[in-house]
Amino acid sequence: MVISVIGGLDRFNTLTTGLAGKIATVALAIMTTVVTIHVVMRYGFNYSFHWTEEVARNLMVWMTFLFFPTGHKKGMNIAVEFAVAPWAHTAAGKIMKILIELLSLIVLSVCLWLSLGFVERGMGSSSQALQITMGYVYMVVPVSFGMTILCALENLLRLLAGLVGMSVPPPAHTFAARAD
How far apart are CA 145 and CA 157, in angstroms? Predict the structure, then answer.
């Protein structure tokens, strides 16, 4: 049962983080294009568009938050590896990793809860240049935290299964530097 839940979470997380990564990559390409147009127009033709900085900033926020769940799934987030590495394959190291993942889940859940209020408040304001409702721009924040919570849950279940000696297939996306 646990193995099938982990497998299902892995497939879902791989699909959603892959889609988010593609959207973030498109956002990066558009942001780069917009900034390039802005620089060429400003310094080449002494003319500046009023909307380019706002578009670039919003796309950067979306890009960052859309890549965040992938980073967590692949173990690329900030970690205190030097503290865990010496005991990584011992019971104490496995318990330490479980506690860290539980703490991550708590922090991510609080962030998700707070981000919902952030989106709600953003629905009452609009951007200066584009006149779009800021709540729609902020919507990526709770989506990102929700996706990251699912990735953290998958990681936690893998760690718990490993602690009790269950054989769990590796995640669909693995990061070579990760030493689990």
Answer: 18
